[in-house]
Amino acid sequence: MDLFHYSGGVLLAEGVDVERIAAQAGTPAYIYSKGTFEDHLAKIQAAYRELDPMICFSVKACGNLHVLKVMAERGSGFDIVSGGELYRVLQVGGDPAKIVYAGVGKTDDEIIEAIRAGIGYFNIESEQELENLIRLAERHAAGDETMLKAALRVNPDVDYRSHAYLETGKRETKFGVDIERAVSVFDKYGGGSTVRLCAIHVHLGTGGKTIDPFVDAVKKILPLVDRLREKGHTVEALDLGGGYGADYETETVPSAEQYAAGLVPLLRGKGLRLILEPGKSICANAAILLTRVLYTKQGGSKKFVIVDAGMNDLIRPSLYGAFHFIWPARVDARFVPTARNKDLHMGGGEVVDIVGPICEGADFLAKDRCIPPVQRGDLMAVFGAGAYGFTMSSNYNARGRATEILVEGDSFRVIRRRETYEDMVALER
């Protein structure tokens, strides 16, 4: 369920006219729907309920404290990749036992912070990292504490069929260890007294559109689990990571129920606690980026719509060639969209490049996109902006980062104020 919709040609975020938000909070603005977050999480929890999963929302996808608090209140754990993300989760009362910590370059300080917090699992990316975790655990874990748990990240060498930057489960990647080396790692470190290597972690990437890579990965991992158990090693959990599709285009990815239908039968009766790390499948369509048209111009045969949101606000189109549906916030009846697809063309529309104010040729939100005619001052919504939108934003060109707004029913509130010039220079004074 996506709670952004048009009523009488006016775009509403749940029950709030987005023009009302722009009038109070300005643009660019990230507008989040609390109800959409809750609905998407609930569907994942329900789809896998048979396996009693630990669902760990990926903080890197959308890390605002107010969003994380909503997730925690609805029973979510958290997938983190830095000490800063750990700090954020703890600030909102997240359960440390439901935190999994991934990342290839954890510093000693970050590891010590996580040890002291009592997190659920460290996802181990290399033998050297595991050796360092053991060393630090011996020094910093209290003697009467439960032994630290670790999951070995294994690359099943599955083709995820996504963007090259977004595929992380192949052999030639900086993440994890080759599946062929997993047994030797368990043989060497599986009997530790301070760190208990007792789980397998797999993360294939992000941006995929079918369940096949996940099914293929599980089919490769289960024989590994059997072999490890035959050798006397404990494997209590399987963390299948994230990367579950989000509907940037209408009905182009499987639902939570469809993913579960392919995965649950494979894992039924295997004695494995299932851990999932969904990010964009929960939050991508829980937000729009609201922006205002500054100018329109003609450049040769191409028409440009210049808006006040740029690649510093939303870098995904420039970095990944990612598609985001973009549409005016107010349209007449013939332009009310019924789908959000790349090939959406409507009579009377015009083909334009939608670009931002950044001094870079790579600063665009969409190219050769057919939209209803717009003019200076019109509001436009960039849909599917909740995942890796604000979290990847920057101050490039000395631009303050956008405000963040949370909508609940007929009300909304600012959950991060817009950065000022003084905010941007404060740490340099």
Structural key phrases:
single chain; 429 residues; alpha/beta; Lyase, Ornithine Decarboxylase, Chain A, domain 1; TIM Barrel; 21 strands
Give the overall form.
Answer: globular
Got a strand count? 21
The CATH architecture of the largest domain comes to Alpha-Beta Barrel
The helix-and-strand class reads alpha/beta
In the CATH scheme, the class of the largest domain would be: Alpha Beta
Helix content: 25-40%
Percent range for β-strand residues: 15-25%
How would you classify the quaternary structure?
Answer: single chain
Under CATH, the topology of the largest domain can be stated as: TIM Barrel
* Total individual domains: 2
Architecture overview:
Mean pLDDT is 93; it is low at 165-171. 27% of the residues lie in helices and 25% in strands. The longest helix is centred in the middle third of the chain and has 19 residues, at 212-230. The protein folds into two domains: 4-32 and 284-428, Lyase, Ornithine Decarboxylase, Chain A, domain 1 (Beta Barrel); 34-281, Alanine racemase (TIM Barrel), CATH 3.20.20. By secondary structure, it is of the alpha/beta class. Helix 8 runs parallel beside helix 9. The chain has helices at residues 18-25, 34-47, 65-73, 83-91, 108-117, 127-140, 182-189, 212-230, 256-267, 280-283, 316-320, 421-425, and strands spanning 4-7, 10-13, 16-17, 29-33, 54-58, 77-80, 99-101, 121-124, 148-155, 177-178, 195-201, 237-239, 273-276, 287-299, 302-307, 326-328, 350-355, 364-371, 379-382, 403-408, 411-416. Strand 1 and strand 2 form a beta hairpin. The strands form three sheets. Strands 4, 14, 15, 16, 17, 18, 19, 20 and 21 form a nine-stranded mixed beta sheet that branches. Strands 5-6-7-8-9-11-12-13 form an eight-stranded parallel barrel, surrounded by four helices. A three-stranded antiparallel beta sheet has the order 1-2-3. The protein contains twelve helices and 21 strands.
